[in-house]
Amino acid sequence: MGVARQRVPVEVCFRKGGFALLESYHDEGFLMDPRADPFAKVLVLIGGEGTLYRGGEAVAIRAPSLLVIPQLEQHRIEDHPGKPLSLAGLCFMPACLVGQEIREGACGRWRLEADTPLLRRVRESLREIMVEERQRQTGAAEVQASLVSRILVELARSPGQMEGTGQIDSRRRVEGYATVLERQFWKADDLDSVSSSLGLSRRRFTQLFREVTGESWLERVNRLRLEYARDLIRATPLSVQSIAFECGFSDISHFYRAFKGHFGNSPGAFRAQRS
């Protein structure tokens, strides 16, 4: 059974939480008049190519990319001949699940980017929202609301950019990842999965990461984890095992060895000294 395709923009139906799931699969001859919606849109382009007109500017867009259109901003999308666009995304009314600061940080400015870790994270969350929509299992609405909030926070925390969706060069992708790593050092990633997620070979990623940060990937991950652990030991009464877990260490003996190697004392001795 084929996907139902539209020749005009789809109707948007909002949920109680102030958001709407949008799926739009354009047919040849899709027509969109200039519009300024009373809601913001976060769209993932999953197929096709086109041109975004905003004000007097024309910007080329193509899948895969992330597009954020702020509330009340006039715009129009025109598909390229033979390459109709397919989009999935979310629409947000001013009163939605999150506070004004997060909402404005997420949707208050134009954003267009491709080949970034942010696009991949938003795409995965959106995919899960869509699966929950189809399956309608117990708690589906609650899962969707949490994922919608997560997307908005991800957008609010990431610096925006507005540019054509040509390939972003490898160094900039690594720079973006290094910035995200400062907050997500606790994730159980490995070098192969990270380099693959950025569309780079292991060797190329390793080379660029050292050029960008002055450290190897493993050195930086361990340093960020251990410095966070040190701060928790200083400021909290948490057990060493709990701190090791929160920082991303699954093996407590490995954490002890790494901490002592980095700071010259075991976690317990370090805490005793500070006390």
Description:
This protein has 275 residues and is an alpha+beta fold. Helix content is 45%, strand content 17%. It has a 5-stranded antiparallel sheet, with helices on one face. A hairpin with a 2-residue loop joins strand 3 and strand 4. Helix 1 crosses helix 3, helix 2 packs antiparallel against helix 3 and helix 5 crosses helix 6. The model has no long low-confidence stretch (mean pLDDT 87).
Shape: elongated
Work out the strand percent.
15-25%
Largest sheet: 5 strands, antiparallel
Helix content: 40-55%
Q: Order of strands side by side in the largest beta sheet?
A: 1-7-2-5-8
Low-confidence stretches: none
How many angstroms does the end-to-end distance come to?
A: 68 Å
Number of beta strands: 8
Q: Total number of helical segments?
A: 10
Structural class: alpha+beta
The radius of gyration over CA amounts to 22 Å
Average per-residue pLDDT, rounded, comes to: 87
| Order of helix and strand elements from N to C terminus | EEEEEEEHEHHHHHHHHH
Overview features:
single chain, alpha+beta, three-stranded antiparallel sheet
Brief write-up:
By secondary structure, this protein is of the alpha+beta class. Helices cover 45% and strands 17% of the residues.
Secondary-structure map:
Blueprint: E1 19-25, E2 40-47, E3 49-54, E4 57-62, E5 65-69, E6 76-79, E7 86-92, H1 100-107, E8 111-113, H2 117-135, H3 140-157, H4 170-181, H5 191-197, H6 202-213, H7 217-235, H8 240-247, H9 252-263, H10 267-274
Antiparallel strand pairs: 1-7, 2-5, 2-7, 3-4, 3-6, 5-8
Helix pairs in contact: 1-3, 2-3, 4-6, 5-6, 7-8, 7-9
